[in-house]
Write a structure and sequence with these properties.
This protein is mainly beta. The chain has one domain. The protein contains one helix and eight strands, in the order H-E-E-E-E-E-E-E-E. An eight-stranded antiparallel beta barrel has the order 1-2-3-4-5-6-7-8. The longest helix has 4 residues.
């Protein structure tokens, strides 16, 4: 089966907390079509990215590269024009054929453990 087809669909991504059940704010829904990703969580953060095949032919994992935008809740007190954006980079490796997986991704310079579950296909 083609990796591109297997990685398309709706996914639930949950941040893994070692000692407690993940709250609803730690969950997001992610849609993948082709190599493009788009998702959002309940707090208004928007996630965008791409799935890129690795260059090593011996592995079936894909490289996840993306960003998430942090929404502004109010007008900032200081001038923020010097900052280019409020985006944090996301990177990691995922298995496009797994229906459920536990993996780690890098958000900015911080490593975060997540669980990814396949929910179903996207409508045509």
């Amino acid at each position: 089966m083609n990796q591109r087809i297997c990685s398309e669909g709706l996914f639930e991504v949950v941040r893994v907390h070692s000692t407690r059940i993940a709250p609803a704010t730690s969950r997001l829904i992610l849609a993948c079509r082709g190599d493009r990703l788009l998702g959002a969580d309940q707090t208004g953060r928007v996630y965008m990215g791409r799935l890129l095949p690795q260059r090593l032919p011996t592995t079936r994992k894909l490289v996840l590269q993306g960003t998430y935008d942090i929404p502004l809740r109010c007008r900032p007190l200081r001038d923020i024009r010097n900052r280019a954006s409020f985006r944090l980079p996301i990177s990691g490796e995922i298995d496009p054929l797994a229906r459920f997986q536990h993996t780690s991704v890098w958000v900015g310079s911080r490593r975060i453990d997540i669980e990814i579950s396949y929910l179903g296909p996207l409508p045509a």
